[in-house]
Structures are given as C-alpha cells and as structure tokens.
Specification:
The protein has about 775 residues and is α/β, with parallel strands linked by helices. The protein is built from 31 helices and 23 strands. About 50% of the residues lie in helices and about 15% in strands. The strands form four sheets. A seven-stranded parallel sheet has the order 3-2-4-1-5-6-7, with helices on both faces.
Amino acid sequence: MLRILGKKARRVFREEFITGIREHRKAWSLPGGGREDARSFLWSSTRHAHSSGLYVHHTIGGVGRDSAAVTIGLLHALERFQPGVGYFRPIDQTTIGGHRSKLMKQVFKLRDDLKSMQAMTQEHAYELVTHDRIDDLLEEILKAYETCKAHHDFVVIEGTSLKGVGDDTVMLNAKIAQTLGASALLVTDADKMKNWDDWEWEKEVVNNVRLSDLVFKRENVDVVGVIVHRIPSCTRKDEMIHKLFSELNIPYVGAIPEDSVLQSVQVQDVLKALKATMLYEVEDEGIALSTEVAQYIVGTLQLSELLNFLPLHTDPTKGSVVITSASRVDILLGLIQLHESKSPSSLAAVVLTGGRPPPKEVDALGGASKGTLPILSSPLPTFETAAALANVEGYITAKAPRKIERAQMLFDDHIDINMIKRAILQERPVRMNSKLFQYNLFSKAKQQPQTIVLPEGDEPRTLQAAGAIIRRGLCNLILLGNKQKIETMAKQFHVDISVARIVNPEQSPDLDKYAHSFYEARKDKGMTLEKAREILLEDVNYFGTVMVAAGDADGMVSGAIHTTANTVRPALQIIKTQPGLPVVSSVFFMCLPGKVLVYGDCAINSNPSSEELAAIAVASADTAAAFGITPRVAMLSYATGDSNTGPLIQKVMDATAIAKKKRPDLQIEGPLQYDAAVDPIIAKTKMKGVDNPVAGKATVLIFPDLNTGNNTYKAVQQSTGAVAMGPLLQGLRKPVNDLSRGCTVADIVTTIALTAVQAAAMKEKQQEQQQKPNNNLAASAA
C-alpha cells in the first residue's frame, strides 16, 4: 500500500504514527503530549524492550508449511529461562483465533483465550491500511497486546505477512514492533532462494535480511539476531553466511537445516485435503494420524498382484497410502491383515472411494479394523482422489507430535539460544523450573550415554517411550520380549526402534550365565540353579535385574504393568543395597515455580527408624547432587529445634545426629517444620535469629514417615500445579526405578533419563572410591 501511494504517503504514514502516539498518551493520561514527547515515549519503549517481548519477523512470507517450526523451537527454548512465556499474533489469517495462534495455544498449553492472542484478522488489517488508518491499526494492536501481556512476564510476538501490502510488509512489521516496545528476531527462509549451487546464493540470503535489519533499526527497534531456516545441509554455506552477517554487524544465531520430517505429508494432511472421514476408531489416533506418507498407490488390481507393488519400508515411521474402491473389501481386509502381521511392508492408511463398504461387510470390517491402521472414506471418485493427493502439502499441527518434537530438537541443536537469552533476558535472573530441569536432565543423559533395560518391551507406552528416547539420543536401550512381537508392534505404532537391542529371555545365549549369577546371589536362601532358571524365564523383571547386576545394562526401568513390589523385590534380592545404606528409599523432584526441591521418602518406607531416616537423608543428598542441585537437607517434623518434645520429634533429632556423624560434609539440619525449612523470613523467626545454612534455604526435604511424605507431595502437586518427577529409587548398588501403572509415555521417557543420569553418577562415585585407596597408598609411600 505504501509503495503504491509513493513518498508522500510514506511521510504521511510517519506523521500520522507520531500523532497517533501523542493521542494515545492523552487518552492514557500520560505526561506530555507534544510531538517530541511522543517520540521520547516511543523510543523509551524500545529501550525497555528487555521487559516486554520478542518480535519474530519472517523476512520472506512466514506462512509456509513448516514456517511455524522456528517459532515452536523458540518458545520451547525460552520456556526454560522464562517460565510462562506468552504468544501474540498481531494479524492472523481470516478469523480471530487463526491457525497459528491456535497451534501455539495447543502445543504449549497456554491458558489465554484465543481472542487475547490475536489483535485482528488480515481482512480487517488490510481495510485499515488501504484507508490510511495506520494509527487505528497500531492502536488496536497495542491494546490487544497489553491485554495478552497482562498474563505473562514475557511474550513472543509473531509478525505478519499481510497480503496486498507487498514489500512494505517490512515497514509495517517494524512499526508494530516499535509500538509494542519489542526487540526483533529476524527469520529468513533459505528455501525461498534460488540457485543453491550458485556462489551468489549466500549473498542473496544475507541481502534479504539486510533490508529488514535496516528498516527495523531505522525505526529504533533492537535486532537481537537472525536465524536462517531450511538451509541446505552444507557446512560451507553455513560458515559463509556467518561470515557475511558478521561483516554487516548483524548477530547470527544459527541456521536450521532442511528436514524431511518437517516437510513431510502425514495421514492427517491426507484426511484434511480430501475432507475425508475416518470410518472406524483406531488405537492411539495421534500416532496413527501423524504417520508420514511415503507414497500413494492406487489399488485396482487383485490383492495378490497389489501386494507386489507395496515397497518394504525400513523406517517404520513411514508408510504407503493405498487408494481403492470401497467395494473392494477383499483388498481392504487383506491390507488390514498385512498391517497387523510381521511383514516389513508398512501402511500409513487406506483411502476408500465411492462411499462406504457394502452393508454385509460392515460388521466384519469393524471387528477387523480395531487396530492402528486408519481407514478413510473419500467423497471423491478414485481418479479425482489420487489427483487431489498429488498436490498435498504437509503442515505442522498440534496433532503432529513428531513434527513438533523435531522442530524443538532442531532448534536446540542448531540455534545459539544463549545469544537470544542474553539480549532479551539480561535483566531477568534465570530461575530453575520444570522445563529447564528437564532440559538439563536430557543434556546430562546425552553426555554419558548409558544402557537401560526395559523389561516391558512389548507394552505400547514403553515402546513409544523407547522411540522417543532413541530419537533424542538420550541413552542405549535393551527391550525384553519376543522379537517378532515387539517389531510388529513397533511397525503398527510407527515407532523406529531399529538401533535398540531386543532380547528374548527364552532365546538368550546368556541365560545360563544369568541363572548361575542369580543362584549364587540367593543360594543361602534355598535357591537352586533349576529354580533360578525357571524364575528368569517366567519373570522379565528378574531377567532385567540380573542383566544390570552382571553389568550388561547400567540400569532398569519397569512398572508400567507390574506392581512396585514386582519391580523392587528382584533388585533387593540380586543387586542389593549400597554399603552403609541399610534401606532402599525414593525421592521425587518437585518442580515448583522458580525452583526444584527433592522430597524423600514418599514411596517406599512406611515408618523408618532413626537409622533408616538418616540413611534416607544421606542418599537423598547424594541424589540431589547428582542432578545438579546443591543439597541442603532439612529433617522435617511438626516442631522446629527445641520448641517441643515427644517420641516423633526425638526420632528426627536422633536421625539428624546420625546423618551428621555419617556425613559431616553435608549441610543437614533438624528437626524443622516445612515453612521454616523453605521460607527465610519464617526460618529467622523460628530459629530465634540464629543464622543457619539450611533453614529457609532447604533443597532436600526428608519426611518422617510415608504417610506424611506421600500425602505432602500429592498435595503440593495437585494444589500448585507442580510437576513431580519420580519416584527415583536410591540405596541400591545399581539403579532400578519403578513406574506408576497409570504412567504416560512422557513419564516413562523422564524416568529412563533419570535412571541414565543416576547410573552415570553412581559409576563416577565408584571410580572416586576406587581411587582413594591408591591415593592413600601413594601418600603413605611419600
């Protein structure tokens, strides 16, 4: 619009904008009101950009099929440093609550109403721009933004690509960013450039960004950096672009490479493109609909001939979509049986044309289709259906968990988030939270990859968690169970476990070795070699535990379909407790706003003695240290210090004394009430002014019994929305951890990562202990 009206219109735009700010000041009863005051107000807003938000400007488009990937990755990364990040879209599509705003709300579980996440539609914005009502447009956007910002400490604002404005979209976005007092992050799409093989390609990318950088800086908007999206996988190009941006003094924070997963077409894209319906419910619809489409096949041949055209997919996350007439029930039933078999041919979906199957076959078909293969009904004939699918593009949606996870991983791997953090959060101290704790946990697991055995290898949630662990590269996995059954289930759930080791206890070459090891550990209790072998074949938890004891695995996670007793008992019998720790206990990592606390014991010991309570305190402190939490241990009771007496208080006092004597290097205090343990002001009062390194600053809280601990962690979790990670078992020679039978896939992933980090920490501690005697001998010799 501005380009069309020429220089005069541009001057009017700027004058109206300054006038508009002046009028807004009057309406808000702000001091001043003159033209210079308006400019001062405007510029001061950019000077305080650190406390407002970050404006993401797509220099090219920003509405492509995977353009949301950068914003998803950015929000995911910022959540670790600034919990409660909000999302705002000044102008979005054709309706309030447009696709992008709705996507971010669903992915990040934002509590905002969709109307508060967006200022206006493209239609309304275009009307305002074409009628030279720029001040009205900016005022509406600013008011909507203030409403959104009221619920968040920090907001990511995603710019617009308003149709009909052309090249002046850059100026419009710069004006909006300036009005909102936000810094800017420039994102350019390298895929939109031409001639990747041409040496001028890098300059084209840089020049495209340079224009936006100049416009934003001219409008007094701080540019914190630039991200290049969909760069070809070539280190030389990345290095050249980095050099060119450095010469222009434009901060370069990284490039996200082209990725086939982000650009892939999934079953849900087929469903939407055809306006089709699903004939029958499938197990785990989210996984089924997010399966990647490898190719389309029109099934008009006989079933036996059609099967010859189905390729063998080595990647189970991909599959073929077969298009066939609804009257070909023979093909449909044959494909369902193929999908549920161990055949390496992978199907993503079946699309039926020409209506529903014949009524006589519906009942039989319904019974056969209650699996994981989506069966879609297209309203178009076969030829038109195939033609429509030829041009389908894949988009990132809230129902595409693999794409969302991939976008987050690519951002973490390729973007220097610390550059962005330093620029926009320099006035904000980073406080620990669940997102940051989990990120640190996963990073720590990757540093020293351990091998974790999963006895419930053919359990669906465990299998999907295994796929997530492998995709993230958190550790090595061993799945116990029937190899064919596990691989068939993996194909049905489209989970890639190709790098995992699958061990069938019945066929394991180490069965005799494990049986003998089990026998040796329990022969004093009447165990025989034959009985040991029998138990290992009957109970996967015993088999997995012996693998850990033998050193063939570093840790074990079980409990999705087994009780706590079934998981822990084998560990107590075979792995046994650590020297000096008479009891196995547990902790939860309680991720509260701004901090992570360690609660113990909340799952195992019902009424520990003073000696056992001291052991729990020492073990919990070591666990906290292993996960990067400085242990300050509070021994909890219903009284603080010597304010009261009684047998329950005395137990805690005795436990505190025992723990201090056993580990004088630890900061341990007790008895303390919960409020005196975590609140510095209350601690100062109840400790009678005595300065104490633990009171008011405790990070590890030890409950006197299971009744107190279990109810407290659940009360805190339910009342505050805190994330409880655990339970993590401690006190064993090697890590074995228990799952709740109601656990989710995410819970299993977290527990496996916790176990891997725990295993690495225990190895380091053992190495240190082994080195101490050698150091003592060397000192004696000297």
